[in-house]
User: Fold these one by one.
Assistant:
Number 1:
Amino acid sequence: MRIVIIKYNAGNIFSVDYAMKRLGVEAEITGDLEKIKAADKVIFPGVGEAETTMNYLKEQHLDTLIKDLKQPVLGICIGMQLLCKSSEEAISGKVDCLGIFDEEVKLFIPDAQTHKVPHMGWNTIQVSDSPLFKGLPENPYFYYVHSYYATTGKDTIATTEYIHPFSASLHKNNFHAVQFHPEKSGKMGEIVLNNFLSL
Amino acid sequence: MLAKRIIPCLDIKDGQTVKGINFVNIRNVGDPVELGAEYSRQGADELVFLDITASHEGRKTFVDLVKRIAQNISIPFTVGGGIHELKDVDTLLCAGADKVSINSAAIKNPNLITEVAKNFGSQVATVAIDAKFENGEWTCFLNGGRIATDKKLFSWAKEAQERGAGEILFTSMNHDGVKQGFANEALAELSTSLSIPVIASGGAGTMEHFKDVFTKGKADAALAASIFHFHEIAIPDLKEYLSNEGIAVRRSI
């Protein structure tokens, strides 16, 4: 099985690679269009800023490539947000994203007394019946670090409550995405990554 | 519900853990990689590694160590110590660190916070503050608490937030090492005046101190070293206690 981690101008790609190695899987980190197209599974990870990253994806022609992928794709954190329709994380206040999911990405409004932003730390998810979440206990904890969130809608397959409910996970056709960091979420995260690899 | 975080802190010198650590079942008690993995297995929510090496050679060892830690744990970790410029941050992130903790360098050059946040995102920029309460106010200190500055805790923390810090790690020098509880009054004021998370450090001695720091001190996370290293408190027991006290902690590990 050929697994590719898309390399682009975002940080935290190494930790996904390390997580794959801990699962005994070798993944290739690459920005090469042909290699990404030919992979059996594609992981679209990252920590970064939406507008800069979208511009980079366009320059590298990764935007159309990602949209046309037919094999299972897993978006993580900013990877998930970029698969949404649009994001508020832009100088102009809105940037168009890849539009796989209908959801919009919005900024959390902090409430200093109870809710800080970024949403940082371990929070529970309420899961639906999805192959990605097979074998998880009830209300498992996952590690989050983000200031923007995807709204909930028809593609939402898991939610987390912070200030209000948001999409912890989205799914449409071959596209799967999680807002949390499975590569930093201990055993629970390993279960999700293994489930993705067995899709 | 967002869980309150429990964070063990390890001091590293020349690639080895400095403070004596009293774990049975670990072959090399000084090996930070094994210790990190052990804390991770016990349910630590995050780890902090502080490099207290002075030499250039020791520094290279530390970067290599960060890489090995990243390969062996599946929870977030922060590294601090010896970070002076953007390049240092880049090196540590490329080695696999999730966040960096900046202390003295941020006081000397506050623009470093802005630069780190702009280049790598706020989530990477933890600003650590060592402060001491004397003459009715909290004064910030440099170089591990050796040199007093003209910066005051609350205004400096606010400035760090405005410059893009993702969290504040506040150590009370009055409480550190005394094991009589955290600086809850100052922590509560800090936590309610900021919109970013606050990690409390200094003073942990009993499980009740952790309950108090989350309730009275309104902290988002609590950091401790020796009570974990010397097995005075085991993390699973602490989490069970906190959970029974009605505090949200991560139990599924």
Number 2:
Amino acid sequence: MRGLIVKHAWKAICAVILGLGLYAVVVRFTQGLGASTNLSDEFPWGLWIGFDVLVGVGLAAGGFVVAASVHIFRITRYEEITRPTILTAFLGYVLVIVALMFDLGRPYRIWHPLVMGNPHSVMFEVAMCVMLYTTVLALEFSPLVFAKLKMRAPQRVIQAIYTPLVIVGVLLSTLHQSSLGTLYVIVPDKLYPLWYSPLLPLFFFLSAVAGGLAMVIFESFMSARAFGKRLEQDLLEGLARVIVVVLAVLFVWRMTDLHGRGSFGLMFEPTGESVMLWGELLLGVALPMVMFMIPRVRRSQGGLFFGALLTIMGFILYRLNVAITGIARSSGVNYIPSWMEFAITAAIVALGFILFGVAAKHLDVFPAEAAPKPSPFPSHPTTVPTPRYAGRGLLALWGILLLGFLVFGFTTRRNNSHADAAATASGVVSGSFTPATAVPALRDDMKLATGEDSPGVVLFNHSSHVDGVNPTCVPCHAGTFRITPEGARKFKGEDFHGAEACGRCHDGKTSFNIDDDCEACHTP
Amino acid sequence: MRAGFLVDLSKCVGCGACTLACQEINGLPVQASPPKLSDTTFTMISTQNQVHIKRQCMHCLEPACVSVCPVGALQKTELGPVIYEEGRCIGCRYCMLACPFGIPKYEWENPLPKVQKCTMCFHKRVSKGLEPACTSVCPSGALKFGDRDALIREATTRIEANPGTYVDHIFGVKEAGGTSVLYISPVPFAALGFRVDVEEDSYPKLTWAVLSKVPSIVGIGSVLLVGIHWVISRRMMMERMEHEAAEHRRESTTRGGDRS
């Protein structure tokens, strides 16, 4: 009974999220990105790029790491988890492409990079790799679909090319996982020095390996709970050990890089950025690394799950710090995503869970557990209870992160005003410069086109119309008398008397009335 | 000729002629004094420390926006202007992120938005041998259109001939690897809101240093992966064969024992 309620509650939550997301999509495509997001000219990339794309692609990295382990390094015992991992990766990439359809101004041109590619553009490289790798993942996953449809021939073809396929997949992944970091190599003055580095591609690659593997662990727990499948705890523990090594390399390398570029000290300045960096490094890198180093923790279900979760959160924080936190100061604006940006992001995540569930139901995603393998662990139940303290831990962690965001928000605001004050204080060179007022290059007298019953020719004289102390062209040229030949409007005769022309100022108030004295302008 | 224009901030009177000319030629809504650059304002005059500053695209010699555009919608023309081909643009906004001067603007209210910026009147004027609308209407002599090298010489002459009038710096000679638009000023550029912290070298070089390695990564990577696969698979095969051979021996010895 309780299970039934929980199941329906989840469905209801999913429905609400999808509904809100759909509303946001409608607003996006009827009123534009300005109405649906808090993006601006100062802050052109926000949550959709930071989370949906950078995080989405990175967390799908488990796909290529596990595929490489099984098919290239031949660590065949991981074969058991390849199918759900490849499925997760494939869905991840599909959802990244879906997310791009909302973020791109002209989504129907998403194929343009294929035919108009600019090889100097990192984005072009990412686009090509993502497109090709999504195809590779689809092929890697296709045997399950073919098996369902009982199509033998294509299954055999895929089987024959599987290893080359995996090799191509690994290469493509290596390229674009790192290239997502390269995207930011061109903004040395916009990205805060705690994150900017020419080594961003390497850091993005390493963190994607760690984050992707953590995602495999997370996904196994979710599947074990949702579909009652066996939890491959021995395998996951192996992944946890790999994560330790990757996180350690990442941690040391980032520290030496910060030191090498002279930005080490920035970590100890009381700024919002340093708070966010510490959050990222301590909670998302150091803590899970230490946890996974302790065998007792690594072998407990709770420890494994919680450690993976921390790694994932650290990964998410790293991507968001690069995409949002690190850009905030130089942009000069405080970007907080709109509820519609959150709604679409949440809807995409929900869609991911739903699609995974559908695939798991209809396809043979979890290979039959025919012969239970000998395991170093005591026998575990077939259904896995949620690690008891994970829920509370998750809540606490998000609390800490939220606190970090708030601190960040306040400190950057204060810092911005500091910076402004400093600029005005140091920059003023008052008194040394007198602004120019000379306008030597005014046009010669212009003979205006006269009508048939004109009392005489009008010679327009620029210098008598321009204020010598505060010269401005705007009163006459803003829309009335056009300033370029391309924009010129043809006035003739009486037209000049109207409020659209001379009459606008010569109305008896601003200047003498046009009807009072013909000879003031017309020379007979 | 590599076209460009020189903005002499000591001469600008802030009359607004350039702004209006820009609005006219680009068919933009008429605004007497637009507050900032936007999708409907490609140039404007801001006043800081009593100096009137005309702002617009700098038309970099090696533009970051051009290098990052995945579809080549932004291009540096032979003549100098950096132009935008709307029909290619997918609206990814990478140009906006990458531009060190924050120039490209977006049509945020348009469901299918374009990027907008100054094109130095390339299509309507410069490609036909004319000067851009803004420089053509400037009455104060603050704007001068011409060959970039000649303009640098002229700017140097002006600075040298009028001691005390100018800060000894031509903004745009080295900034961001050089720009087609050049500025000379009576007040330090830092006090006028100029991005004085931009790199001296060109921005595209930063990403090209990484991107140019892609072919070798693919080459070396594929050989390495195939190699690893081969070594490990062969070792596994050998192990299996040895195992089978040992099994076979054991079988034959037990069989032999039976026979005796």
